[in-house]
Design brief:
The chain has 15 helices and 23 strands. It is of the alpha/beta class. Bound molecules: NADPH dihydro-nicotinamide-adenine-dinucleotide phosphate.
Length: about 500
């Protein structure tokens, strides 16, 4: 691995200069403008990044359109070989990529190394394999002497727009099926976490991916690279993971050209714990579903509902576990929770804590900057894992997505009541149910309005399954064949037999 940008302890060694990747070349933005990327643990600059404009997007689209002509016609088996190679190269660079993801997001390196980078690699190997077995339909129209068969074809150039919380996982979750299906792409990573997308471009080049198949354009969202990608007439499909309001803005811009859209958006996910659940297990997993990645995971269960019989015990034990979490240096393998992504985001999360108190909520633990942090980290974006009780369901803290290490816990009495309360939100991404009553588990799962439901577990993913949200949490599904539904277009061919 090259010289570290940041050392354990937070000392910055150097500032790296990132570039766009267009048509197989690493280049600066046409305007030459750059913006700064900071280490969340100290808020010091670790990278400068090209601020791309319309001309840069134009160049990327041109190269992706050109590459599409070749890539879309390449046999699936050939395309799969490239994806498999990328998967292998990601694992070869496991240490480097985990380190960079930890530094860019401020997340614990243990999480990046143990889960995210291996998963980014698996996204490629999974879709490389899956693509070989995707089939289409055939219909025999026997009363009319005809047959119909369905051809599945790539769509064209895709704009893949990603957030900052799980950068490489979410980028590869889009890039792998997009390329496997024969499309070419332009990636626009979050301005806050541009590093691993740039590394992915390096890996693609090393894997010999033809020029222009994968492009990376850095910049901002509105009136910048993101919006210029969405509004470009030659970009035929847009996959976004981000906030609901961003989905709405993109939908407005994309409507002009009726683009295909896939949105994975915000959530305010209920975590329902019945009295018959295995409490120890529910607590172990709830700590993760509450505070993993500083609570900056769209699937975090931020509204915890606990059956009244076990409410006091559950709260006491949850608080005890939250207090035991090790918050600190992202690069320390022992760290459970790192820094929040930015000062602005920390401010937003803290504002919700003020609202909670004003609305009569009680912060049982957390809500403050951890006291034990070394001097070097005092300028970073820190917050202790926070547990709030005593709020009613209509207050903003229970209704709105906070996207930080903050959970609310509320008691409930009956199954009907908790289903209604869980559904009392305009989001519908995921839900977790803890019970040992099989019938109840099925009953509740079928009535909860969410695209992904876990029973007695959390974050367990099989990449063949449909992933996405209901209501304001998304549009469409990705995963397995559902990704191919999005990244391909179907064409029916009808033949009248003589
Ligand atoms: P944002 O919506 O702010 O940004 C997501 C991406 O969209 C960024 O690259 C951003 O650019 C870009 N963008 C913003 N506005 C526009 C626009 N008008 N046109 C084109 N692109 C635009 O989300 P965050 O990065 O803050 O991520 C957090 C959000 O993501 C949370 O709401 C979370 O729930 C959601 N999320 C959902 C997941 C899911 O699977 N459902 C998974 C993970 C996160 P830039 O920021 O650089 O300006």
């Amino acid at each position: 691995m090259a010289e570290a940008i940041v050392e354990k302890g937070g000392v910055i060694n150097k500032v790296i200069e990132l570039k766009n990747f267009i048509g197989g070349k690493f280049i600066d933005s046409v305007s030459g403008k750059r913006f700064e990327n900071r280490y969340p643990a100290t808020n010091e600059v670790i990278a400068t990044v090209p601020e791309s404009g319309r001309e840069d997007v134009e160049m990327a689209v041109e190269s992706a359109v050109k590459a599409f002509k070749v890539w879309s016609k390449m046999p699936v088996k050939e395309r799969s070989k490239y994806l498999m190679k990328i998967s292998e190269l990601i694992m070869e660079r496991l240490d480097e990529l985990s380190y960079l993801e930890s530094v860019d997001v401020g997340k614990p390196i243990r999480l990046a190394r143990g889960m995210e980078i291996p998963r980014a690699s698996y996204n490629f190997s999974f879709f490389a394999e899956f693509a070989k077995y995707v089939h289409t339909e055939f219909y025999e129209t026997d009363d009319r002497g005809a047959i119909n068969y369905v051809l599945r074809r790539p769509v064209g150039v895709a704009g893949l727009i990603t957030p900052w919380n799980l950068p490489l996982v979410l980028t590869t979750w889009k890039v792998a099926p997009c390329l496997a299906a024969g499309n070419t792409c332009i990636i626009k990573p979050s301005e806050l976490t541009p590093i691993t997308a740039t590394k992915l471009a390096e890996i693609a080049a090393e894997a010999g991916l033809p020029d222009g198949v994968l492009n990376v354009v850095h910049g901002f969202g509105p009136n910048s690279a993101g919006e210029f990608i969405v509004s470009h007439p030659d970009v035929k499909l847009i996959s976004l993971t981000g906030e609901t309001t961003t989905g709405q803005a993109i939908m407005r811009t994309a409507s002009q050209h009726l683009k295909k859209l896939s949105f994975e958006l915000g959530g305010k996910n209920p975590n329902i714990i019945f009295a018959d659940a295995d409490l120890e297990q529910a607590l172990d997993v709830t700590i993760q579903s509450s505070f993993s990645n500083q609570g900056e995971v769209c699937l975090c269960g931020s509204r915890i509902y606990v059956e009244r019989k076990i409410y006091d015990e559950f709260v006491e034990r949850l608080v005890e576990r939250a207090k035991r979490m090790k918050v600190g240096d992202p690069l320390d393998p022992e760290t459970d929770m790192g820094a929040l992504i930015s000062e602005e985001h920390l401010h937003k999360v803290r504002t919700y804590l003020e609202i909670a108190v004003a609305d009569g909520g009680k912060i049982l633990t957390g809500g403050k900057t951890p006291e034990h942090l070394p001097e070097k980290f005092k300028s970073g974006n820190w917050l202790e894992p926070t547990v709030i009780v005593g709020l009613n369901d209509n207050c903003r803290v229970i209704k709105e997505e906070i996207f930080g290490p903050v959970v609310t816990v509320s008691p409930f009495d009956t199954e009907e009541e908790v289903i209604e309360r869980a559904n009392n939100t305009h989001y519908g991404l995921s839900a977790t149910i803890w019970t040992n009553d099989l019938s109840r588990a099925h009953r509740v799962a079928s009535q909860i309005e969410a695209g992904v439901i876990w029973i007695n577990t959390w974050f367990l993913r099989d990449l063949r399954t449909p992933f996405g949200g209901m209501k304001m949490s998304g549009l469409g599904r990705e995963g397995g064949i559902y990704s191919f539904e999005f990244y391909t277009e179907l064409k029916n061919v009808c033949i009248k037999l003589q």
